[in-house]
Structures are given as structure tokens and as C-alpha cells.
Design a protein that fits this description.
heterodimer, A: about 110 residues, mainly beta, Immunoglobulin-like, six-stranded mixed sheet, three-stranded antiparallel sheet, B: about 110 residues, 11 strands, about 0% helix
């Protein structure tokens, strides 16, 4: 069975401070990991996927298969980063279905 | 940028009634999904649909649920006889290739009274 764990429901960080949102997964196959973001009153939007190895809006995430983690990081938080962040696991060769974590609400304190 | 659109944004229905949630996926997309999110809980997969048939469904997607693509643009989720526990936010998603990220709609908030 696939499982995604986001241990922090709420995270508050001061503007300019580093941010790390934790995500651990459980899956016996080859995982595909995503971070989705949901800004206030907006839809779920893809932020990052691990295979693209991009940096979007200053965020990066590295897949660590040894630790089964895909933590989201940003060196300097900005106020507009306040949102709900969901880690998601795709299975098989792509993302036939997504298994989501419970989400972390990130609040950036000015 | 093209978007997945869902209607209505909020649906209130009496328990036991049938409800149909509508989605218009992005026009060149071929894979379609429904997810739901009960208040305070995580987003859960319901069903995926490709080539006019269900490709995968979860335990939640029992006989009370059905999906249909009645024409070239709409993708609907029907709940035959709603229960109180069906109250949730329902998200539609689509992608043109199962290896590509899914694009989500704004969701329909379903409230069962």
C-alpha cells in the first residue's frame, strides 16, 4: 500500500528564514513524488515533481530513497509562500493515481 | 492557460438524493480523475478514467458512485443515493499523459443534509 506522511499540520516561519516541509513516503515500487500547493481560495497547483529537478519559486525538493523522503525546502521564506502544501506519491510508471499526505499549512510571519 | 472547470462550486443535497458533479477537463487531455477531501482530512483518490472506461478505483468508489464522459467535453461523477458521509470537497483532475502531472479543478463542495 502507498502512504504519504506529512508530520506537521501547521508550520510558522518568519519572513527571510529557511523553510523545510517534511514528507515521507511508503511504496514498494519506483516512486514518483510531487509537491502541490493550494493558495487561499485557489485550486491545487503543481509546485514540483522530483524527476524534473527544478527550482520553482525558490523551492527545491530532493528525493532520498534511502530515507524515503521528499522534503520541500526554501532558503528564504517570503510572505506569498503562505499556503497549504501537499506532498503526493504517484505509482507505477507515472501518476495513474496520486496518494496525498494530509498537508502542511505554512504561515509566513512578516 | 487552459484550466479544468468544475460546476457547481457548491451543491447542497438532501440525504438519499442523487447528485451529479460536473467537470470539463482541459481539451486535449485523455486521462481523468476524481478525488475527494473530507473537511480536515487528506485528498483521497476515487477513480481514474481513460479511453471511456474506469482504469482504477479506490475502496471509496462503491456501487453508489459512477462516472461518465457523456460527450467530448464533460466528465461527470454521480452519487446515486447520497449519505451524510459523502459531504466533502470533490476535485476533478486531468492530464494528457499518465506520466504527466495532473491539473486540478477548483472543486465542488458537496453538502449532504
Amino acid at each position: 500500500a502507498q502512504r504519504v506522511t506529512q508530520p506537521e499540520k501547521l508550520l510558522s516561519v518568519f519572513k527571510g528564514a529557511p523553510v523545510e516541509l517534511k514528507c515521507n513516503y511508503s511504496y514498494s515500487g519506483s516512486p514518483e513524488l510531487f509537491w502541490y500547493v493550494q493558495y487561499s481560495r485557489q485550486r491545487l497547483q503543481l509546485l514540483l515533481r522530483h524527476i524534473s529537478r527544478e527550482s520553482i519559486k525558490g523551492f527545491t525538493a530532493d528525493l532520498n530513497k534511502g530515507e524515503t523522503s521528499f522534503h520541500l525546502k526554501k532558503p528564504f521564506a517570503q510572505e506569498e509562500d503562505s499556503a497549504m502544501y501537499y506532498c503526493a506519491l504517484g505509482t507505477n510508471f507515472g501518476n495513474e493515481k496520486l496518494t496525498f499526505g494530509t498537508g502542511t499549512r505554512l504561515t509566513i510571519i512578516p | 492557460e487552459p484550466e479544468v472547470t468544475q460546476t457547481p462550486s457548491h451543491q447542497v443535497t438532501q440525504m438519499g438524493q442523487e447528485v451529479i458533479l460536473r467537470c470539463v477537463p482541459i481539451s486535449n487531455h485523455l486521462y481523468f480523475y476524481w478525488y475527494r477531501q473530507i473537511l480536515g482530512q487528506k485528498v483521497e483518490f476515487l477513480v481514474s478514467f481513460y479511453n471511456n472506461e474506469i482504469s482504477e478505483k479506490s475502496e471509496i468508489f462503491d456501487d453508489q458512485f459512477s462516472v461518465e464522459r457523456p460527450d467530448g467535453s464533460n466528465f461527470t461523477l454521480k452519487i446515486r443515493s447520497t449519505k451524510l458521509e459523502d459531504s466533502a470537497m470533490y476535485f476533478c483532475a486531468s492530464t494528457w499523459d499518465s506520466n504527466q502531472p495532473q491539473h486540478f479543478g477548483d472543486g465542488t463542495r458537496l453538502s449532504i443534509l
